[in-house]
Amino acid sequence: MRAVLLDAPRPIEESPLRIGDVEVPRPGPGQLLIQVSACGVCRSNLHMVEGDWVSHGVPATSPIIPGHEVVGTVAALGPGVDAFTQGERVGVQPLWWTCERCDYCLSAREELCFRKLITGESVDGGYAEFLLASAAHTYLVPDELSDVDAAPLFCPGLTAYSAVQRASLAPGQTVAVFGLGGVGHMVVQFARLAGADVIAVGRGRAHLDVAADLGATRTVSWDDSGAERTLQQDGGVDASILFAPSQDLARMAVRATKRGGVIVLGVNADVGELSFFDSKTIAESVIGDRQQMREVLRIAAAGKVKAVTESYPLDQAADVLLRLKRGEIRSRAVLIP
Length: 337
What we know:
Distance between the termini: 10 Å
CATH class of the largest domain: Alpha Beta
CATH topology of the largest domain: Quinone Oxidoreductase, Chain A, domain 1
CATH architecture of the largest domain: Alpha-Beta Complex
Radius of gyration: 20 Å
Largest sheet: 7 strands, mixed
Order of helices and strands: EEEHEEEEEEHHEHEHEHEHEEHEHE
């Protein structure tokens, strides 16, 4: 099969990716072989390719196939798999496997499992014609969703939904969403579904326009000298959700959030000094669990949220990652093998 391979991490400008031919994997016990029809391109893929997470053991093997938001059809079943049939449309999210035995797995917090394997980082991912998947972490794709529309739901959709739940939003509250890319544009939609007014904070007219189209009450450019003043009107926002990797924006989010409010971090961030007098809550959010994934698919199938996508052939993966790095992808790019 054709696949995009990373041999050794280095800047995307130095062409670390190559297209190669590799053997189609065979499913073992509890596994599926999926013929890939669409795979979203995530900034996490870029971090891995460029070596930002080498100190954390990512990538775990070399060469490795990136990609962790995958949709395709079941091509073969491994021993013991009876929940799926050949030809069914399915999807795979970043959580490729969890141990099912630790306290985190047994309390619906499996994304925190210390032994978890991540699609495209611990094991080969979806930048390929076929993907090996764990049946326990594979999901049926509703008929109402196309392959391209469904693929981003398996990372930005799930990640956004989980972050909004962590914010505990209520109807009539106001939330500021920092960063309006692949995840942020989904956060805007889920926050609106929760009944909140959304202030979308981003850079670049294209991202701000997408947020406005998706229901943001107001849009604010973080380059505007009056951005923080705008956020602090009426005493500030009830919650802030951060998906922009910036120390300055993290601290702006804290300052913009009311006393007793919630700041949800979807990226690594230095939020600075906190005052216990303000009783603000800092919540971190990573990926999401299987039940949340199923809920995201149901919500999207009902037409209540949508991923804004642009499609590219598989052999343009390196170019797409370069465009992502330059901020030239409007919301979510999807590769088509």
